[in-house]
Amino acid sequence: MNPDLPPGPRVCVVIPTYNESDNVVQLIEGIRQTGITGLDILFVDDSSPDGTGESVLAISSREKWIHLLSRKEKRGIGSAYQEGIAHALANFDPEVIVEMDADLQHPPETLSDLMGAVASGADVAIASRYVPGGGVGGWGLARRVVSKGANAYAKTMLRLPVRDATSGYRAFSKAAAGRLSSAKLPATGFEFQVAALCLLKGQGKIVEVPFVFQRRIAGRSKLGLGAVLRFFFKVLVMAIFPPRLEWRKG
Ligand code: GDD
Ligand code: MN
Prior knowledge:
This protein is an alpha/beta fold. The chain has a single domain, classed as Spore Coat Polysaccharide Biosynthesis Protein SpsA, Chain A. It is 40% helix and 16% strand. It is built from 8 helices and 9 strands. Guanosine-5'-diphosphate-alpha-D-mannose binds next to strand 1, strand 2 and helix 3.
């Protein structure tokens, strides 16, 4: 940490993992090198067979800002985010909550832009591929078409006022994170990203900051054909039954 930097807001970065053991050490170093102070990182691991959870646990015993929430079985990225955000709010008293992938496709340097946007009054700051200055690295035609198609479909069906509705790299104000975690979204998979925007639109300021989605170096994507088909179906269901803030516990 850089002692010359003024202390920032307390931030918890929630990172879901499934078989990311070749990425977590480098990711933690990348986040450390941003020099951002006041950070906690919460990994939400679904008992990855490759030992990701054990690696994180070993690091967390030496580094007090690294935490592990371990779940017994693979229950989806959206479910990991919902449980992770609730756990972070209950345990770390963060002023900002960030969601970020573990595989280095989300560059740590963008963290300060996301946090700056929340500090300037945004409730949701999205790291966006589809605003000027943003982009994707190393994607073939098929993935580009699927991403653009999924975005256009979700934005139209759910009337989402953003350019990149499916990005999984975001920061939330404490108020927005609280709304998210009490709403209990019916979105356990990759549809969580659009479900969250559906819930939070009209509830505060949403802004986008550009970033370039990096090529995956190690490990493999979990977003296969089944997840894409499920996404299209889930968006249709949400268009008919929009997630609402009233869907609170009880
Ligand atoms: N705990 C847990 N459980 N983590 C999971 C699960 C799960 O069931 N499925 C995926 N993850 C973790 C991965 O280990 C990774 O850290 C992160 O979630 C993203 O998964 P990837 O498989 O790398 O997704 P991607 O790169 O194909 O998709 C990314 O870009 C999409 C937009 O194009 C993600 O950011 C998506 O959220 C985003 O919609
Ligand atoms: Mn990825």
